[in-house]
């Protein structure tokens, strides 16, 4: 078995028999990045420059608010706003010129002035420094997964005995495999990933159907079995994004 600093997180999630190892790794990476954002990175010049330039998406702003560090969060958000205001001033000035009949220099090749304005405004909202960092971590995890799958028979066996991955991460895994695997290796991994996805989705659909039948009065008193969190697990299989703590709450409340 190949245990190194880069491989340990993958071994841990695979041995933990989680529903999707990549969802687990993504959740871990997000938690670490959110905590660091309001910790040592708040006052790091290089980090602040990236925060100022890229900003933070709505999802990660919500996670930052949950950290109860309003001062650190306010400092990051304030400096990002200061970065945006000159850009908005520039666009406002161009719009005012356009109202006076002056040709708008930002209306490029075939695009209307409004199209170009919207494009530049959208560029102010699509980036997120935490998303970028998490994506960097995930690229490394996918690369490490493929390396272990190719070279370590124990890891490959563990994968074959797992629940596979959610639909989005199965797609991303195969997209990465297209670049790093060749010929029969691509086919082997694709066959394995799809077989695990289908088997897991089949089982979860059956448990979800059982869950819906539990609300029929004729089934009153019948044991719930593994169906209590079937809805959360099926949603995760289809779209990813839930961590263990999220969908076990549904089991307790069903």
**Count of discrete alpha- or pi-helical segments spanning 4 or more residues:** 12
Domain module count: 2
Mean pLDDT score: 87
- Please tally the β strands and state the result: 0
Spell the H/E element sequence.
Answer: HHHHHHHHHHHH
User: What fraction strand?
Assistant: under 5%
Task: Considering the chains and any ligands shown, give keywords for the structure.
mainly alpha
Description:
With 254 residues, this protein is mainly α. It is 70% helix and 0% strand. It folds into two domains: 8-129, no CATH class; 163-253, no CATH class. It has helices spanning 8-15, 21-37, 45-54, 58-65, 70-99, 113-123, 129-151, 153-160, 167-180, 184-213, 230-239, 244-253. Helix 1 packs across helix 2, helix 7 (129-151) packs across helix 8 and helix 10 (184-213) packs antiparallel against helix 11 (230-239). The radius of gyration is 24 Å and the shape is globular. Mean pLDDT is 87; it is low at 244-254.
State the gist of this model.
The protein is mostly helical and 254 residues long.
Give the secondary structure arrangement, pairings included:
Elements: H1 8-15, H2 21-37, H3 45-54, H4 58-65, H5 70-99, H6 113-123, H7 129-151, H8 153-160, H9 167-180, H10 184-213, H11 230-239, H12 244-253
């Amino acid at each position: 078995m190949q245990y190194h600093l880069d491989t340990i997180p993958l071994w841990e999630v695979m041995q933990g028999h989680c529903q999707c190892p990549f969802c687990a790794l993504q959740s871990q990476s997000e938690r670490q990045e959110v905590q660091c954002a309001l910790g040592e990175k708040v006052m790091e010049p290089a980090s602040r420059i990236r925060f100022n330039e890229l900003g933070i998406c709505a999802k990660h702003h919500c996670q930052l608010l949950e950290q109860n560090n309003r001062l650190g969060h306010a400092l990051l958000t304030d400096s990002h706003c200061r970065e945006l205001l000159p850009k908005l001033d520039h666009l406002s000035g161009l719009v005012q010129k356009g109202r006076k009949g002056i040709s708008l220099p930002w209306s490029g090749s075939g695009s209307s002035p409004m199209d170009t304005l919207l494009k530049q405004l959208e560029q102010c909202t699509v980036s997120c420094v935490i998303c970028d960092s998490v994506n960097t971590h995930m690229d490394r995890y996918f690369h490490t997964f493929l390396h272990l799958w190719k070279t370590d028979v124990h890891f490959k066996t563990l994968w074959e005995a797992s629940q596979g991955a959610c639909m989005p991460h199965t797609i991303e895994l195969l997209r990465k495999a297209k670049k790093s695997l060749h010929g029969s290796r691509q086919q082997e991994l694709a066959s394995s990933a799809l077989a695990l996805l289908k088997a897991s989705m089949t089982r979860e659909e059956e448990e979800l159907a059982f869950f819906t039948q539990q609300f029929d009065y004729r089934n009153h008193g019948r044991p719930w079995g593994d169906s209590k969190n079937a809805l959360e697990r099926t949603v995760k299989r289809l779209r990813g994004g839930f961590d263990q703590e999220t969908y076990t709450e549904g089991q307790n409340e069903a």
